[in-house]
Design goal:
296 residues; two-stranded antiparallel sheet; mainly alpha; 69% helix
Length: 296
């Protein structure tokens, strides 16, 4: 049903694994780890311009907040006119609320696709306890080993199933660690904690840029700051190590990207404020000179 997501994600992962496998060896666990990390780099780079558009939209809405507030007061008794005027104001300043949703939607689809592709390397269990997957008839280990996984052939499936990171299989989850609980925990738990910390500080950076004069949703801020990071820890126990690697890489990218983009936007805003101040200073009447109020 979602092959239009699964095949592109599989293709990018296959390209990077082929590239790193040519250097490190086809069955190298590090080649698979780097393939997952560079999948994040590739997809987040493709989503950078939509993210920049989203950040600019948020900054523009913040600047327009006084005018929006004035329109709400002016048309307090006419909701339809109020909405029309606010939409007109957004259009005049190039604000697109839909564009702000694209990065979030894109990241969600990518995560869904990567989870499915990586989890589909191991079809020996029903995976009914995992998110995004309905219970399916399990394969035997022999059947799984000879069954391709999207663009990955049978040899790739066997390679992934045997790949490890410091003794922890990339396909394993902490919830089903079995006899490898300690080895998997030593890798999975730090990744879960890093993902939680990155999620928390990403939320803090976003909340810090909210307009204090605008109406906020305290519940959403609380969820972003504390519940979502907690979910990374609790839910991380159900995710394969390879997915945790993706999660950490994606969250680290988001945190760094926010810092760089917001700093750039702040510099642009400061430069614009200086430009406006300079224009006002140059056009303001000199002391003792009567302003010229004639129409031009």
């Amino acid at each position: 049903m979602l092959d239009f997501i699964y095949y592109p994600v599989s293709a990018i992962l296959w390209i990077w694994h082929t590239a790193f496998g040519a250097v490190l060896g086809h069955d190298s666990g590090l080649a698979w780890v780097l393939a997952v990390v560079f999948l994040v780099v590739t997809l987040r780079a493709a989503l950078f311009l939509p993210f920049l558009k989203q950040a600019r939209t948020q900054a523009a809405i913040k600047r327009l907040q006084p005018q929006i507030t004035a329109l709400k007061k002016k048309y307090a008794d006419d909701r339809q006119r109020q909405t029309t005027e606010i939409q007109k104001l957004h259009k005049e300043h190039g604000v697109s609320l839909l564009a702000g949703c694209l990065p979030i939607l894109g990241q969600g689809l990518v995560f869904f696709g990567l989870f499915h592709v990586l989890r589909s390397f191991d079809r020996t269990g029903t995976a009914g306890h995992l998110p995004f997957l309905a219970p399916t008839a399990p394969m035997t280990a022999a059947q799984n080993a000879v069954t391709p996984n999207y663009l990955f052939g049978a040899a790739d499936v066997q390679s992934f199933m045997h790949s490890e990171l410091f003794g922890a299989p990339l396909s394993a989850t902490l919830a089903n660690a079995g006899g490898l609980t300690l080895a998997i925990a030593l890798i999975a738990v730090p990744l879960m904690l890093i993902a939680a910390v990155a999620t928390h500080f990403t939320a803090r950076a976003s909340i810090a840029r909210q307009d204090p004069t605008a109406s906020q949703l305290p519940l959403m801020n609380t969820l972003s700051l504390w519940m979502f990071p907690a979910g990374a820890i609790v839910g991380g126990a159900l995710l394969p190590v390879a997915i945790l690697l993706y999660w950490v890489s994606n969250n680290a990218w988001t945190l760094a990207q926010q810092h760089l983009v917001y700093r750039r936007l702040d510099a642009e805003s400061a430069a614009e404020a200086r430009r406006v101040a300079t224009i006002r200073a140059n056009t303001a009447p000199k002391p003792g000179v009567k302003p010229d109020r004639r129409r031009r």
